[in-house]
Amino acid sequence: MTKKFLVTSALPYANGPLHFGHLAGVYLPADIFCRHKKHLHQKVMHISGSDEHGVAIMLSAEKAGIGYQQYVDKWNASHRELFAKYGIEFDFFGRTSSDYHKKEVLRWFNDLNSKGYIGKKLEKQLYCSSCSKFLPDRYVEGTCYACGYKDARGDECPNCGEWIESLRLTDPRCKICSNTRIETRESEHWYLLLSKLESLFKSWFASKKHWKPHVWAYTNALLENGMVDRAITRDLTWGIDVPIEEAKGKKLYVWFDAPIGYVSNTIEHFRASGAKDDAFKDWWKNPDTEIIHFIGKDNIIFHALIWPCMMLSTGFTNPPDDVPASHFVNLEGRQFSKSAGWYVDSEQAIDVFGQDALRAYLCSIIPETGDSSFSWDHFISFNNELGNKIGNFVNRSSSFLAKHWPDGLPAEAFAKAASAENFGVFKKSIAELTSALDAFQFQRATSLLIRFGEIANETFHAREPWKTIKNDKPHAEETIALSVFSIATIAALFRPFMPKFSKQLSTYFTGYLDGAGLDALYQGRVEVMVDAFRGGFRLPVTPSPLLPRIEEAGVAGFRLGKT
Ligand SMILES: [Zn+2]
Ligand SMILES: [Zn+2]
Fold first, then answer.
1. Domain that holds residue 173
2. Please, which of 125, 406, 423, 430 could form a disulfide with 524 given CB 3.0 to 4.6 Å?
């Protein structure tokens, strides 16, 4: 059986805009990976959707004075729109507030419960008597027991950074009604008994040494003190009801329901597209399917430990083969913070600079081996260098071709340029790019791609066709034929990274190389070009400048004030 790839991207939380860190950390690499596999003619499916439950959403909706559903509707639509602008494609992008998701979550809960992996515990919790409700951490404020700061949040102190246990806050008060007479009451909660799943998990995890070192090490460290049971229910009014009579009024914790979204969204995708009955099994329970979760490193515990435990114990799906978590992207060296104004509107940016410039630069800062940083200076220099090296090369060589061979470059030129030596260089570059992407090395793949363009550019200049055309025309013809090979290869190889630019470039080969031809090229079968240009080549378009320069004036409005 040939391998298939089931790719998921972390469900974006429907509680605010997505910034460059989300895009470069999760969605862009997942999109590149899927496009890469498609061009290799390997089966791939990309699933994601909005994560629409949880306390943070409730607080934001309440602050905005709108209903929870209305609030998540807004962010679901906004995220979809942003992904479309960035050319990030999904086979299905669903929602966790949907009925189909709820149904699937209950199936998981009931199965885990019937197998004894869910248990009840009594928990002390803060209770507001004037609101008559239990207060989740984020609904409480009080004085920090570590530093004495008056307005510490129930989960974290913004002053000293201490992770707060809300029960220990001095002078706790209710965030909803400002009541300061807060009681401590006991409430029953249901737990996922991870302690019971430890040996099952460990024997599976032992086979995951191929994971990225930081993901493996982080997960391994979590195992050192034994696996801890985790509460999966909360006293909230927004979320999925716990399907147990005595848990009436409680909802499932968002971290429990969210990852099930990968599965529920796939089921809904198959239902909506009329797939065959065995489609689910074929993708989620097939040893020949590689399940890959693209996430940020803040999500490792859920995707590398808890979620696999749920998968292993229910047996509803196979566990993931890989969890290539990325590091963080900073903005000019500092963490993105919308509230602190350290922020760029990623939608406004793409409206100004377009998909090619942003995808190109974001590809170069995908944080695969460590944290990276978005910088406007680097954005300008990176794009202008790309324009100088690749845009100018394509424009110069194709304009030269159009000017001197308006009736077409003769077939003999291509026969000569298709030497074993030249094609060897092409094949090697393509093979390196393919293995980098297969290994989730997106930043490295981007550099390899640019290097390929650089070599083509250097070769063009070193062979000086503008001189040889005067005294050795066949030499000049061979140079341009080689440039044509390079441009076609650039058009093929850039597709996962900059699909718009590639599409534009592929119009240079209309009638010579179609999508299948470019795929063959992408797969390293460079001989397709011999066939394509067997009768010579007449440029079917008038070359126009590609990859326009980014000017400081365009960026000025986005630069952040010095703070
Ligand atoms: Zn209250
Ligand atoms: Zn503090």
1. 118-192
2. 430
